[in-house]
Design a protein that fits this description.
mainly beta; about 130 residues; four-stranded antiparallel β-sheet
């Protein structure tokens, strides 16, 4: 059974940092893009960041550029999202996801990702 399990969320003050993790089990995602999305109450799930298998390619939403850093440890089958300089508008449930097909092009489209975790809550207080 393929499973993606997020961890590392929590409650932080404005300007704080967290490190989110996404551990994959049941299979490896060799050759697949993986990404982070987030969803705030009453809003659509939106792309946050993505990374290719080689780690050579990364992509970020404009709203998080310069503050968030995505990485992955292929040997450990784990992906990370370092989130710094947090703002109240970053408050969301953060989901990790793996792409539907092998490739290196990072897509921001939710439907291009086939595997999803259950999410981890990040709350930023003002």
């Amino acid at each position: 059974q393929v499973q993606l399990l997020e961890s590392g969320g929590g409650l932080v003050q404005t300007g704080g940092s967290l490190r989110l993790s996404c551990a994959a089990s049941g299979r490896t995602f060799k050759g697949y893009v993986m990404g982070w999305f987030r969803q705030a109450p009453g809003k659509e799930r939106e792309f946050v960041a993505g990374i290719s298998w080689s780690r050579f390619n990364t992509a970020y939403a404009d709203s998080v550029k310069g503050r968030f850093t995505i990485s992955r440890d292929n040997a450990e089958n784990t992906m990370y999202l370092q989130v710094n300089s947090l703002k109240p508008e970053d408050t969301s449930v953060y989901y990790c996801a793996a792409a539907r097909t092998v490739g290196w092009v990072i897509t921001t489209i939710r439907d291009d990702y086939a595997y999803w975790g259950q999410g981890t809550q990040v709350t930023v207080s003002s």
